[in-house]
Amino acid sequence: MHHDLDQLIHAGDYRAAAALAEARGLLPLARDLYTRLFDYERAGHLAEAQGDHLAAIDLFLKGQHLEAAESVRRRLMAELSDAIPAAIERFEQRAFHLQAAELAESIGDLARAARLYEASSSFARAGRLHERQGELRRAGECYDQHLRGTPHDPAANLGLARVLQRFGRHRDALPLLARAAGDDRCAEDAARRMAFAFFKLGYLEAGRALLERLGLPRTLDPHRFMLPLEAELQDGQGEHDGQRSLQGRYRVERPLPQRAGVCFLAFDLLRTTPVTLRFIPGDPDAHADFFDEIARVASPPLPGTNRILEISRDGGFIATEAFDAPTLQELLDAPDPPRAPRARAITLQLFETLRRAHERGVLHGAISPRAVLVGPGDLCRLVDWGLHHLERQAATQTGEHTFAFRAPERVIGRPGDFTSDLYSLAASLYAALTGPLASLAPFFHRALSPHPHLRHTSHDAFKRDLQALPWHTLTAHAPTPTPPARPAADLPAEGPRFLPEDPDAPLTPA
Predict the structure, then answer these.
(1) Does pTM top 0.85 for this prediction?
(2) Which residues pair with 312 in a beta bridge?
(3) What are phi and psi of 253, to 5 degrees?
(4) Would you call 309 helix, strand, or coil by DSSP?
(5) CB–CB of 450/491 below 8 Å?
(6) DSSP, residue by residue, 421-489
(7) Which of 123, 281, 396, 423 makes an SS bond possible with 145, Cβ 3.0 to 4.6 Å?
(8) How many CA atoms lie within 13 A of 64 on its CB side?
(9) At what angle do helices 110-119 and 123-132 cross, to 10 degrees?
């Protein structure tokens, strides 16, 4: 059937044979021929096209095509792929320790990530992970190693000071804290720890002066101020099991597996209230866009979100008020899912939150039923802000379900606007509805158009059409959270696109 291919191979013209096999869709054969030609880049791209990401990494690394290997690595991290553990092995075997470390951190394997960061001489990042695990002696050694070459790094100075204070060495910690206090990212924590050190050393006036700098009254009882950090010291050297406090303030209690990224429920010892901690794997300096956007969400507090209590760039985490509630996805998967009136109320709440965010110049970029917490009385909170920035850096994961609700232009890497968020909101609504959906076709045809200029041109237009839907004809949620539909012809079919071919056609699965 492929005599011309056989002739080319028999003649030793592997290059022509590989090109012909690729053109005919014979990708395994083409990949093998390119490998024989030592064209590992082309072979790697074919492996990637076949979905064999591990083979693609092997081929790219073998041919020293590091940017291509890095692209595959980021994709695995963004999708929280089951292939990540094997990918770690691939990078580690070829001594790409930094890349392997970031992969390990992305899936919460902190012990391995710390070891690999050390192997890559990224001692500050290793120290941060050792500290999070309570391995304080090793954390101190790593911070100290980093500071030998970069003595003025504020985050590392602050990290080493935290470790020294855990061992009661407050006098030794003071010069490190003074260096850290000169950086805006570390200034508040450094000043708080300096005040604590002054009080511990008996320098009451110096400590009270720092209380004023922190916006606290000079008359504040030093023992009350020191209580959260005293709790940290009670952890001793941290080389034991059990609960430990983070940076002398947060007692980490349990992971939150249903949330995107690496999240934990914790207790704020300063405010005496539960909080959610989201850790951002990788180098915090590489994620300035994420932290900047979180700052815009935080001040002033955005309605319909969990209030952001602390943004710790040097610590690589943010702290938000805890909101112990199931996600909308969990409710949709429950035996008694929300009915149409609840879906309407939830959607309108989310819409108002998005409208306020868009007025502030903030896009969510990762809306799905998993990013919505539904509390008592159907009070909703939209979470996972800023994660679309991290996906570009492969620092966190939103999961394949998030991509299924994403606007087509965002899926293929183009910048989005407010219509992209409204697309995802409409897609989430579609996932919650069933019944005679044909009567809703015009709304969804417009809201879910693959072309942004054909969607609603304003928030008011979207809300007006949303409220005008015949809600009395609708019943419960769809049988699956992401129903299949016809993808737009000019866009990749990655995940359902929720697009009917005709605005008057029923919205039923293709």
Answers:
(1) no
(2) 317
(3) -110, -50
(4) strand
(5) yes
(6) HHHHHHHHHHHT--SSGGGGHHHHHHHT-SSGGGS-SSHHHHHHHHHTS-GGG--S--SSSS---PPPT
(7) 123
(8) 0
(9) 160
